[in-house]
């Protein structure tokens, strides 16, 4: 009980056992709810999978129809012949819609998607599509960092630079990046360049503002001390400001990398469809929604694993910042 009370106190650290338990629960609860919906018929199974057509012309074994439609056909058969043998009526069992596969179907698809060759010659394997998507994210985020981090540091260090950089950046960050898709294709072609441009636009302007805010949080006493000692200009940024904000800057890049991933699907639809987006759209077209869920989970797993690795690297790079 005391442990539960400690959880309710704002900003109170939890012990390691509680942290592990809560982390497990954050994944277990959604999966449990998914299993309930998938495997418990009385919760939400709005359709019926036909096992016996029962003389209905458009019913086939394995056909999935709404419960209302199924029951209507059963009632019609009974109305036509009240003495009908019940075993000859249409038969079926409750199921969820095809777009909501059960967990075991998604897990199976997660495995087979990597081991099953593409249906058509020349189409990429799933791991090739993933590699292509990761390269788009990497290049878009690299260019955003190359320009966004220096501008953010300048805006956070000098008021003059802040007034020059931030007003337009504040305006531009409200413009949706996908709106520039047609323009990007017209200028950069139909292949990877416009996709990288959308990732860049989606992260660059946010990055400038976040980095400038992080830079302003640096203790002003350090800046004043460096000025007193004659450290100015680029030397001050390199020797004082950048080392001072580096742990927080690293954390900001981790957060913004996740932001870049959210633009991936939209970016890859621009020009020629490619990468993991191409795989998802193809599987949705054939109503293989177990593969669609598997691909979405893969994106989430890659993002989560990347973030965990970056967090561990950050602990080693900046041990003083984590309190170790």
Automatic annotation (TrEMBL):
Chief location bin: membrane
Lineage: superkingdom: Bacteria
Pfam family, one: BPD_transp_1
Gene3D superfamilies the record matches: MetI-like
Keywords per UniProt: Cell membrane, Membrane, Transmembrane, Transmembrane helix, Transport
Membrane topology field: Multi-pass membrane protein
Segments forming domain ABC transmembrane type-1: 130-310
Coiled-coil residue windows: none
Localization of this protein: Cell membrane
Transmembrane segments: 21-44, 136-159, 171-190, 196-214, 256-280, 292-311
CDD domains: TM_PBP2
Matching SUPFAM superfamilies: MetI-like
PROSITE patterns: ABC_TM1
Family listed: Belongs to the binding-protein-dependent transport system permease family.
Name of the protein in question: ABC transporter permease
Lineage: Bacteria, Pseudomonadati, Pseudomonadota, Gammaproteobacteria, Thiotrichales
């Amino acid at each position: 009980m005391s442990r539960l009370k400690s959880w309710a106190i704002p900003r109170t650290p939890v012990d390691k056992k509680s942290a592990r338990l809560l982390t497990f629960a954050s994944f277990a609860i959604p999966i449990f709810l998914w299993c309930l919906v998938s495997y418990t018929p009385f919760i939400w199974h709005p359709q019926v999978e036909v096992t016996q057509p029962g003389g209905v012309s458009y019913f086939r074994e394995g056909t999935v129809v709404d419960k209302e439609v199924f029951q209507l056909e059963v009632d019609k058969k009974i109305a036509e012949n009240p003495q009908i043998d019940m075993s000859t009526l249409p038969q079926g069992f409750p199921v969820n819609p095809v777009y909501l596969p059960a967990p075991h179907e998604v897990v199976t698809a997660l495995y087979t998607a990597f081991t099953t060759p593409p249906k058509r010659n020349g189409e990429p394997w799933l791991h090739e599509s993933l590699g292509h998507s990761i390269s788009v994210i990497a290049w878009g985020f690299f260019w955003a960092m190359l320009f966004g981090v220096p501008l953010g540091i300048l805006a956070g260090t000098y008021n003059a630079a802040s007034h020059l950089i931030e007003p337009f950046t504040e305006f531009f960050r409200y413009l949706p990046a996908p709106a520039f898709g047609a323009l990007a294709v017209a200028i950069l072609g139909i292949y990877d360049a416009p996709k990288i441009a959308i990732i860049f636009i989606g992260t660059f302007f946010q990055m400038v503002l976040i980095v400038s805010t992080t830079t302003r949080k640096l203790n002003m006493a350090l800046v004043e001390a460096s000025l007193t000692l004659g450290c100015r200009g680029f030397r001050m940024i390199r020797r004082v400001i950048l080392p001072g904000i580096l742990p927080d800057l690293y954390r900001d890049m981790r957060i913004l990398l996740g932001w870049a991933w959210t633009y991936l699907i939209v970016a890859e639809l621009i020009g020629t469809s490619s990468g993991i987006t191409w795989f998802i759209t193809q599987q949705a077209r054939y109503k293989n929604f177990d593969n669609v869920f598997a691909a979405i989970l893969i994106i989430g797993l890659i993002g989560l694993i990347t973030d965990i690795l970056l967090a561990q690297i950050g602990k080693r790079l900046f041990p003083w910042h984590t309190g170790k």
